Amino acid sequence: MTENDIKENARAWLEENWSIDLSLLTWRTRLLESGWGVPSWPKEYFGLGLSQNETSEVDEVFAEIGAIGAAHSGVRMLAAATLLEHANDSQKHQYLPGIITGAEAWCQLFSEPGSGSDLAGATTKAEREGDEWIVNGQKVWTTSAHHADFGLLLARTNWDKPKHQGLTFFVLDMHQPGVEVRQLKQMNGHASFNEVFFTDARIPHQNLVGSEENGWPVAITTLAHERRSFDRNRDGGGIMKKAGPIYDEYRQEVEIANEPYRWYPQRAGRVDLIVERAHQTGAIKDPVIRQEIAKLLMLNQSAQWTAARARAAQKAGKPQGPEGSLGKLAASNIARLASRVHTMITGSEAMLSGENSPMEGVIAEILVSVPAVSIAGGTDEIQKNIIAERVLEMPKETRFDGGPFKDVPRNQAHNEQ
Ligand SMILES: Cc1cc2nc3c(=O)[nH]c(=O)nc-3n(C[C@H](O)[C@H](O)[C@H](O)COP(=O)(O)OP(=O)(O)OC[C@H]3O[C@@H](n4cnc5c(N)ncnc54)[C@H](O)[C@@H]3O)c2cc1C
């Protein structure tokens, strides 16, 4: 099939099926049943087996017509990518439909108080009891756990094996008595993450993803997609501004899903505001500030080119290169420099928040949100380690955590089995 045929097929299907009078769930069910919701997925799992390039053609037609696509916000696409690669047939049929229709939301239960960068040091434990696994322990930093129906859980099931080999990956039902979610308030005033406590939480054995004690490669798949920013965006064509009940429903869905991410533009440093602010305040005439602005804009532009190269490689079906870690590191450097330039432009008033403050507190929010970029999705130091070892092929760090995990030195508080 040529690109034109694909576009024609998509257009013909939309003309027959898309209507703004449908409910969002009815519409998304049509997408699910036809494969047009996620055309790049395999035919047997709610897709059409199209390439990324062909899928972009379909996206264009959706945008042209103003049709809403499959749900794609939040952690659900990370869950989908992980399940498509590692889940069994019945798990895929159980969970992928709720992801596409948006009926079910997901969260990523990986980081713990004693294991963030050292993710494989997880001590949340799952023990087999008949047809169930009993989970005890704690996760932290879990974005959107307060909205989630299911969690991707990495838990320790064997303490006698080396740390990467004793982990198992599960799908956990978040709505059960043994799961307690507590929201954490951040220094920027938002509350996007949670602590999640498990006290004898239960997971049916059929929710184990991959095989027992082989959870690490499954978690790596989730992380690889996280760094690659897997989300496809079908919100072209100004869908967010269109009138009609189905668009209202969609806007409401996006608003709830995006609520934990409202401050994300600020955490990226708001480079887009810099030149205008410099003109408004007269700081543009200051030669030192001008130099810093130029440095920032150059850094930002080169990062955009790296991201464009990564997107082109992904579209061409090439395996992920070093761009993920390079891009993540560049984002941290840009955000930090942007927050410094904002402070140079605004002066001490940058610290003020509230109605009468510069840009109604946006500048202050930038200052207290930017540190998150160099932590989320793997810290700067971890990205540097990855680049050193996998791209520059430098010798690996000396490790002291081999042998049975129960004998690996850990913080006292996280030492219990
Ligand atoms: C906005 C945001 C959203 C998040 N969402 C989620 C989520 O949904 N689910 C989830 O599971 N987690 C989530 N996280 C957690 C995130 O993945 C961890 O915070 C991150 O991996 C760092 O772990 P840590 O906080 O335990 O820091 P630590 O690992 O304790 O690191 C502390 C410091 O030591 C450095 N360090 C650690 N190891 C090394 C090393 N080997 N070499 C050199 N330096 C090192 C680090 O770079 C850092 O500076 C989120 C975090 C943020 C900020």
What key phrases describe this protein's structure?
417 residues, alpha+beta, four-stranded mixed β-sheet, four-stranded antiparallel β-sheet, 13 helices, 8 strands, binds flavin-adenine dinucleotide
Task: Outline the structure in words.
42% of the residues lie in helices and 12% in strands. Strands 1-4-5-8 form a 4-stranded mixed beta sheet. The chain has helices at 3-17, 24-34, 52-65, 76-86, 89-101, 215-227, 245-258, 264-267, 274-281, 287-315, 323-346, 362-369, 380-391, and strands at 106-109, 125-129, 132-139, 150-156, 167-173, 179-183, 194-204, 208-209. Mean pLDDT is 92; it is low at 229-234. The protein is globular, with a radius of gyration of 23 Å. The site of flavin-adenine dinucleotide (FAD) has 18 residues, from helix 13.
Sum this structure up briefly.
The protein is an alpha+beta fold and 417 residues long. It contains 13 helices and 8 strands.
Task: Report strand order across the widest sheet.
Answer: 1-4-5-8
SSE ordering = HHHHHEEEEEEEEHHHHHHHH
Please state the average pLDDT score: 92
- What general form does the structure show? globular
Number of helices, counting only DSSP H or I runs of 4 residues or more: 13
Number of strands: 8
Q: What is the radius of gyration computed over CA atoms, rounded to a whole number of angstroms? A: 23 Å
Estimate what percentage of residues fall within beta strands. Answer: 5-15%
Query: What hetero molecules are in the model?
Result: flavin-adenine dinucleotide
Cα distance, first to last residue?
57 Å
Oligomer: single chain
Helix percent reads: 40-55%
Poorly predicted regions: 229-234
